[in-house]
Amino acid sequence: MPTAISGQIETPVKLAPHNRWTRRDLAIIPYAEALDLQYRLAAEVRSAKKAGIVLFLEHAPVFTLGKRGGRENLTVSDAFLDNHGVAVFETERGGNITYHGPGQLVVYPIINLKATGLGVADYVDRLEEAMLRTAADWGIRAERNAKNRGIWIGNNKLGSIGIAVKRGVALHGLALNVVTDLTPFTWINPCGLTDVGIVSLAEAGATDVTVARVRERLAAHMAAVFNIAWEDAATKQE
User: Fold this and answer.
1) Is the pLDDT of residue 238 over 70?
2) How far apart are CA 153 and CA 48, in angstroms?
3) What is the pLDDT of residue 47?
4) Cβ neighbours of residue 4 under 8 Å, at least 6 residues apart?
5) 13-22, 66-75, 124-133, 228-237: range with highest mean pLDDT
6) Domain tally, the chain
7) 6-36 as b/e, with b when 16 or more CB fall inside 10 Å?
8) Could you tell me the CATH number of the domain that includes residue 197?
9) Residue 191 among the catalytic residues
């Protein structure tokens, strides 16, 4: 799988050479559990003035609503969702409704933006860049959309970004569809949009693609884009 660079950001932000982010790999976990963990780690990052802790995980099936709402873009009943075992959760992240489920790589960087010298727009740009480079590793040419953050293949969204910043610490993050069952996306207007589709790396033609492989490539690209080194990269917390 040749690594291709999207060319959108030529020079990564220059952070201190000793800057290190802690990486934690988790199993498939419920959304509420991951949210609680983010809050606890945000307090740790804030009090210790650490650069950041990044969670790599998958979620049990859930629809999450953003600051702009999203329940109005849910096109099935609560009873239908109960029968299919899909929860609905309100969050403080930006954006509208989206779906998380197994086969989708979710990354939650809990980052002290002041300590790392990152502005919000620059931070989001670099999350997009890491996803673009990861898709390119499988020969998938994705692109940005100036009106809708995330990465796209034509009119189909491949990766989403939604963050919140609380007292200088960024929470939430990105979701990249790898081998996701995309059916639940047909039960909503994704991100509040009625004229877009959703695609995964597998459906876009990527071969020999797994969440585990994509996780490693995305972690490597994040290290390059943010100019950081990982701590505890080999530690698995299942």
Assistant:
1) no
2) 40
3) 86
4) 133, 136, 137, 139, 141
5) 124-133
6) 1
7) beebeeebebeeebbbbbbbbeebebeebbe
8) 3.30.930.10
9) yes
DSSP state of 15: -
Q: What does the pLDDT look like over 12-51, one tens digit per residue?
A: 445 453 488 999 999 999 999 999 999 999 999 988 767 8
Could you list the residue range(s) of the whole structural domain that residue 209 is in?
20-231
Residue 107, phi then psi, degrees to nearest 5: -125, 125
Query: What three-state secondary structure class fits 227?
Result: coil
DSSP state of 198: E
- Is 90 part of any domain? yes
Tokens 């877009």 correspond to what residue?
A: 196
Q: Which of 151, 182, 191, 225 is catalytic?
A: 191
Comparing 40-49, 63-72, 181-190, which segment has the lowest mean pLDDT? 63-72
